[in-house]
Amino acid sequence: MDSVSPAVGQALPRPAAHRRPGQVARLVIRRVVLGVLTLFLLSLLVFAATQVLPGDAAQAVLGRTATPAALHALRLQLHLYRPAAVQYWLWISSLLRGHPGLSLATQQPVWNLVSSRLVNSAVLLALVSACAIPLSLLAGVVAAVRRDRAFDNVSSLLALAVAAVPEFVVAIALILLLASAVFHLLPPVSLVPPGTSVWNRPAILVLPVLTLTLAVFPYIFRMIRTTMIEAMESEYVEMALLKGMPLRRRVLAHALPNALPPAVQAVGLTLAYLAGGVVVVEYVFGYPGIGQGLVNAVNARDLPTIQLTVLLFAGFYVLVNITADVISLLLTPRLRAR
Amino acid sequence: MKWRPSRSSAWFRAARTTRGRVGLLLVGLVAAIALLGPLLTPDSPTALLGVPFARPGSGHLLGLEYVGRDTLARVLDGGIRILPLAAIATAAGVGLGAFFGISAGYRGGAYDEIVMRTLDVLLAVPQIILALLLVSLAGASPLLVGTAVVLIHAPQVARVARAATLRAAREDFVKYSQALSDPPLRIMLTDVLPNVSGPLLVESALRLTYSIGIIASLNFLGLGTRPPFPDWGAMINENRIGIGQNPWPVVVPVALVAVLTIGASLYADALSRATAGIELGAEGVLVAPVDEGGRDA
To answer: How far is A273 from chain B (nearest CA, A)?
Structure first.
């Protein structure tokens, strides 16, 4: 934060009175309260979803051929004979104590199944962020500085195309190109034997990371390109130009710091979007992450696993949004004073 | 200034740009295959005709797929279940979102807060996960996929419609109608709606692109169309184990989905540029610098 703030001050000197730490704290608290409220409403929604099932949850899990005895046993396990409010309380209270229950598919604790997948997905997410964020920021800045020239036109069209095409189509196209029909450079699937780490064969990470990098490139690229163009046309950059300041310094010291706050929002949105993107991409490559786990759980009608996974995704989403809001607030003196 | 963008002119202006023309051409091409394809199928799309993943030849232009059905027949028959569903679900999602967004933006107060915070809950879950949650409840079905698409679009469209409504509600002609004590419903329909239709139009075109992507993705995950009926998304998943023997059952649907979504997106982009032009006013270039500052405020 502090590495960027002086640059903002340099470009747009502002009186110290505009920096009010209390306001930032109040906004953070407000956002956290809203986030917790959202998660609470969502947990109600996820719970209510199991209540509106045709028949009931036990019937949905076991299917139509289930014996009455098996149904009875599962209904006891899921507390389906208790009132809905009690069921919700039992579920949410044990979830908050760290006991999300047993998987209906494997009868193992849900947390055991989810935790190793969480680590794998986090690795994927971190690698994609490390590749995609600098790459798309750089491409966006270059495209803005060389507006309407070849690089800008090509990368803008690429961004438009990649943003339009669903991730699984990008993934399959990359598999066709790099791992099967045309070249055989990379493994087409990212299987990881149980108990081993994804790092044992780093090659399996390349295609999933490449797919997701392409998938998130357009959002950050477009946002930083638009805000950079606005900043480059602003009066303070024009002033710097008239003073004879070299291009590099106009871009890095003046335009970029002012174009960054919206880009931080775009990066936040991207990370939140990645959480959804991993579902399809992990499924395509057979990568043992939480997204593939969710698809498996949906196919097996494994309700406790589905509920926990959806809430984890939502929690991540809310957290990322709050973080992005706070960071862009800290980078923007104008918003801080509001 | 009481401008009322005519729908036909924005559609038309977008179609006259290069982007818009290329986009329409691509969408039209794939739409023609999807809609007319079922009439042209050479073989039954569900009949077993030979060895799985047989290479092209002997009357099968694109070879056979994973259980030995004709690839071309399934490609021609597999689009009809994506496009109409995408169009209907998009229309329903935009309609629902516009209803909530306009009414929340115009009425404000507690109603606004309740509606928008409720929709925010839907936004707190990644789109595809919302769809998976719904599908996990009642099993795979096109109806549920459509419902998921509606629920995904409605909150985002509502945000756009609400923001545009807030802008429109400040205009003099709305205040004029309010001063005449027109009923709120009538003001929303006759004064606000025509003035938010520009952003809504762009949003609809964008949403249609997303709808196609979401539906194709859900079908790819095996959560939409049920076998034995063909579907481009499902075909890609079913046949990818045989890429080495006969890549066509994967390559052709991948290309069709890609061309369709890229085309729709190009047209949406042209449309958004065309409506932005309308907002600059009839004199276009002359008033542009003045309006530019005013719009940001």
So the answer is: 6
Could A173 and B258 be called an inter-chain contact, meaning their C-beta atoms sit closer than 8 Å? Answer: yes
Q: What are the tokens at A1?
A: 């934060």
> Among all chains, which residue has been given the structure tokens 């934060």?
A1
A-proximal residues of B, 1-40, CB under 8 Å: none
Inter-chain CB proximity B124 and A317 less than 8 Å = yes
Indicate yes or no: CB of B126 within 8 angstroms of CB of A294.
no
Tabulate helix, strand, coil % of chain B (nearest 5): 75, 0, 25
DSSP state, residue B229: S
Q: Which chain A residue lies closest to B260 (C-alpha atoms)?
A: A165
- H helical segments located in B17-141: 18-40, 71-77, 83-107, 109-123, 127-138
| CA gap B276, A256 in Å, rounded | 26
What are the residue boundaries of the structural domains of chain B, listed by start? 27-265
Facing residue for A164 by CB, picked from B134, B209, B254: B209
Chain B residues inside the 8 Å CB shell of A163: 265
| Beta-carbon pairs below 8 A across chains A and B | 129
CATH class of B27-265: mainly alpha
Which among A172, A173, A294 has the least Cβ separation from residue B129? Answer: A294
Q: What is the dihedral of CA A227, A230, A231, A237, to 10 degrees?
A: 160
Strand partners, B70: B64
**Minimal CA–CA distance to A224: which of A277, A265, A271?**
A265
How many other β-carbons are positioned within 10 Å of the β-carbon of residue A271? 22
Q: Digits of tens for pLDDT over chain A (338 positions)? A: 333 333 333 444 444 445 556 777 887 888 888 888 888 888 888 887 767 665 666 776 676 677 888 888 877 777 777 777 888 888 888 878 877 777 777 777 888 778 888 888 888 888 998 998 889 888 888 888 888 888 888 888 888 888 888 888 999 988 888 877 777 777 777 777 777 777 777 788 888 899 999 988 888 888 888 888 888 888 888 888 888 888 888 878 778 887 887 777 778 878 877 877 888 899 988 888 888 888 888 877 777 888 888 888 888 888 888 888 788 777 766 655 44
